[in-house]
Design brief:
Belongs to the class-I pyridine nucleotide-disulfide oxidoreductase family. Pfam families: Pyr_redox_2, Pyr_redox_dim. The protein is globular and about 75 Å long. The protein is α/β, with parallel strands linked by helices. Strands 1, 2, 3, 4, 5, 6, 16 and 17 form an eight-stranded mixed β-sheet that branches. A five-stranded antiparallel β-sheet has the order 18-19-22-21-20, with helices on both faces. Strands 10-9-8-14 form a four-stranded parallel β-sheet, with helices on one face.
Length: 451
């Protein structure tokens, strides 16, 4: 016999937890279902712990920049404070009790287990069956993907879930994948003393970003002693109990540890969405502007294919909550989705890249400036390289994309994200007053370069 509730939230990642908590606080009978940790990847295996790792890495780099600028310094890396922060401050030793209590204190009911859609408005968790009067919210998240390379399966390789639990830095690290996770972790481990090699099948690292961003990070990696192998296809992986070997077409690479950062995916079949009339064979769940996937069913987060970001999941959760509570609000708008790669220098981007704009055959103008040519760049001096790149729709007179690569690139991006989202006319941006001497004042120079 199914137990009736108002809403069932399957997957308590950032968006699912937020939606479930807010709906419960609004007085609805809400069941939150999660088989792993409430809060999802972000607080335990991704955003928060990895940025603590990045923070440690950045502090080491800043310490080394003292020489010739403000005195002399000899920096000795120590991973133990980083590992302790992740264990004690970020993850509570990978315990989600605080998150569960936060949800239940709002009136929600938490069920630990794997939720599966078993019919319209019905979810089964183990031997418990729940039926939703208002609907189901799906926030299943994603799992790391291990590419089908001979010999890889069964070896003790790391994904993002294992690497955040590291207590000692290996002598050497192979990174399979030069995307965001691979790039961030490569730099962290190199700066803490590991010999790092990044292996990427594409012709450049950070391939979804502007080519100028890839070039800047590649140059920085060279200074950090990180080897990069692009256009590299791994035919086989072997592990002898002490080290990994990647077999390439033109040779072999060996390292004590291997990080596989080759993407993520969701198993929609295991989620059982076919029972609700949805396509289990798809890579993502198709949703409308209110995140509705069908009658009485919503989807949020990575599974929607709109961007695998915590801020995306939270944004979508807000829309779903309003829709379920029949509150007014705008439908989803993905015109200005920001993203930040927390390498040093940071890569912050919003909207379209130049390549994406040209693929859409938009009439565009490009404006760029180098951060090192700004007054703040002159003051900053050491490791001041970077750029701002603006993409203007020539007919509309508004920005459709922007990239800020350089010191604090993700923070400078904020002003440009507002401009893209609100469709602020370039004319208005040119007439703004930009504080001096700041990095963000370089936006003015990039605007001037638009012509």
């Amino acid at each position: 016999m199914a137990e009736e509730v108002d809403v069932i939230v399957v997957g308590m990642g950032p968006g699912g937890e937020d939606a479930a908590g807010r709906l419960a606080a609004a007085g609805l009978a809400v069941v939150g279902v999660e088989s792993r940790l409430v809060g999802g990847e972000c607080p335990y295996f991704a955003c928060v712990p990895t940025k603590m790792m990045v923070r440690g890495s950045d502090l080491l780099a800043e310490g080394r920049r003292v020489n010739g600028m403000a005195g002399t310094a000899q920096v000795t890396p120590d991973w133990s404070p980083v590992a302790a922060r992740i264990r004690d401050e970020a993850t509570d030793d990978w315990d989600d009790k605080a998150a569960v209590d936060r949800f239940t204190s709002k009136g929600g009911r938490f069920v630990r287990g794997r939720g599966r859609v078993t019919g319209p408005n019905e979810v089964t968790v183990g031997d418990q069956v729940f039926r939703a009067r208002r609907g189901i919210v799906l926030n299943p998240g994603t799992d790391p993907v291990a590419p089908p390379i001979e010999g890889l399966a069964g070896t003790p390789f790391w994904t993002n879930r294992e690497i955040v639990k590291v207590t000692e830095i290996p002598e050497s690290l192979l990174v399979l994948g030069g995307g965001v996770v691979g790039a961030e972790m490569a730099q962290v481990f190199a700066r803490f003393g590991a010999k790092v090699t990044v292996v990427e099948v594409a012709d450049r690292i950070l391939a979804v970003e502007e080519p100028e961003s890839s070039a800047l990070i590649a140059k920085t990696f060279e200074r950090d002693g990180i080897a990069i192998r692009t256009g590299a296809k791994v035919s086989r992986v072997s592990h002898d109990g002490k080290a990994f070997t990647l077999h390439l077409e033109d040779g072999e690479l060996s390292g004590e540890r291997l990080l596989v950062a080759a993407g993520r995916r969701t198993d929609l079949k295991a989620l059982g969405i076919g029972a609700a009339g949805l396509d289990e064979s798809a890579r993502t769940i198709e949703v409308d502007g209110n995140l509705r996937a069908g009658p009485g069913i919503w989807a949020i987060g990575d599974v929607t294919g709109k961007g695998a970001f915590t801020h995306m999941s939270m944004y979508q959760a807000d829309i779903v909550v309003r829709d379920i509570l029949d509150e007014e609000g705008s439908p989803a708008n993905y015109r200005a989705v920001p993203r930040v790669t927390f390498t040093d220098p940071e890569i912050g981007s919003v909207g379209l890249t130049e390549a994406q704009a040209r693929e859409q055959e938009l009439p565009i103008r490009i404006g760029t400036t180098r951060l090192q040519d700004s007054t703040r760049g002159f003051i900053h001096k050491v490791d001041n390289e970077g750029f701002i790149k603006l993409i203007e729709h020539a007919d509309w007179g508004t920005l459709v994309g922007a990239t800020v690569a350089g010191p604090m690139g993700g923070e400078i991006l904020g002003a440009l994200a507002v401009a893209v989202h609100a469709e602020v006319p370039v004319k208005e941006l040119r007439e703004m007053i930009y504080a001096y001497p700041t990095f963000h004042r370089a936006i003015q120079s990039a605007l001037a370069d638009l012509g």
